[in-house]
Amino acid sequence: MFEATELNLQNQRRERLFRTLFLAMTLLLILPVVVILAMLVYKGGPMISMDFLLTEPTNGMTAGGILPAFVGTIWLVVVALIASVPIGIAAALYLSEYAPDNWLTRAINLAVINLAGVPSIVHALFGVGAFVIFFRFGTSILAASLTLAVMALPVVIVSTREALQAVPQAFREACWSMGATRWQTIRKVVLPNSLSGILTGVILEVSRTAGETAPIMFTGAAFFLPFLPETVWDQTMALSLHLFVISTQVPEVPEALPYGVALVLISLVLSMNAVSIAFRVYLRGKKKW
Amino acid sequence: MAESTALPAEPTTALAIETRKLNLWYGTFQALFDVDLEIKQGIITSLIGPSGCGKSTFLRSVNRINERLGYVRTTGSIEVLGFDVYAENVEPVQVRKQVGMVFQRPNPLPLSIRDNVLFGYRTHQERGKRLSRSAADEIVESSLRQVLLWDQVKDRLDRPAVGLALEEQQKLCIARLLPVKPSVLLMDEPCSALDPKGTEAVEELIWELRGQYTILIVTHNMAQASRASDECIFMLLGKVIEHSQTAEMFVTPKCQETADYIEGRYG
Asked: Is the ipTM of this complex over 0.85?
């Protein structure tokens, strides 16, 4: 009486088909990542050494290390974070916790989402116009980082807002009903419980800013500058631009060199991500609901 | 469980809440129509009526939590202890200190049990003043004792409140209102998320608090309204249909609609 009917069997076959299809797509998706990583490790791995990380490029960038680019990327990312994270979080807090639900708020939300879709080369030109020329920052780390910050802001805002909205409304109501103001509610309940989500946005931003080339190439990143930057007013080399340069602009670069640079860039991003992820896991463990 | 025939702890005729011509709109939808109510101090008044009749809306306008929605418009007046809470110079934070609220689903904050009890108190504390450890302990203990929760939780005050059983969470939600010494407690179906045993425990607690606080409780549960309140208000489609002694309403309702509702002909 409980045997499978023809219809059941058909459904089962269909079930297997879709399951396999979706699995195949998922595997297809991670394939490039695996291949890229494998290639980089295989071809660039032998390049990596303390010397490679700690010396300047020599011989017209066909030999030597990548120290100025490595340090420069860290400068760019850190300054961009300092500029964008506070602004992004503040804007997300406003949009999520304070803004009334009216056409203006909806327009702002729409603008934020669209801003995320602006091509990075457009951001680059904006950066040149605004930071390099108008604010007279010149081509400098500051101008490049601010350009990166503008580009990353929508990511931070959207992900922070989502993290804030993941905090159950019931908590806010509880706070308000006890007479807490919005700020008291944010500080005591909303922020502590959305930190891990906010960090995810920051992680995304780090990855994106570290790898961007276009926004920095006109605003502060140098083709070849074998010195370490000392202030935000200096120009600097950066890993992403360096990779672009030695891959396309410089003749007779040994094949392994670009792979080595790419491997360092990816490792830098992944290790920054790892720190943030570890922090997130720690925070989530402390979550009390 | 005390019977509803028990005498009020302190017979009083003073009014805790008095509304006049209270109308309320959500956007263009009118949810309350000319609500005139007089709710006496120190007793338990239950609000009954079918879903969407405006019970919760009424409750939420007393502590002005409704206006957080942004698109709510109110006319008329609500006086709490003789003062209009919608008057121009009124600070909603002070209203909410005087009028505590318990929600349908227990909503302890994602903090420790102890910090939950102290949350409201700290919120209203003057800036820069620190509560001494012993004073805080005292507040926590007396509040938890009042809600009959102290013995169960006294050894795990620093554990997350969300780990408590639902019924205990709801008691905690009541306990955290007490340190700021409110006079009115609004309860929006406080037992609907609880099992029968939890319901009984929370009802028992509500009855325990009777006399010290004016309690206004929205409920869907006729049995609960009839056994655990002194007076009863029946609302329908945003209007008050009947307001009388609970015993009277459940035996000899004045209006046909009330009778129909109580007998379960709609709801």
From this structure: no
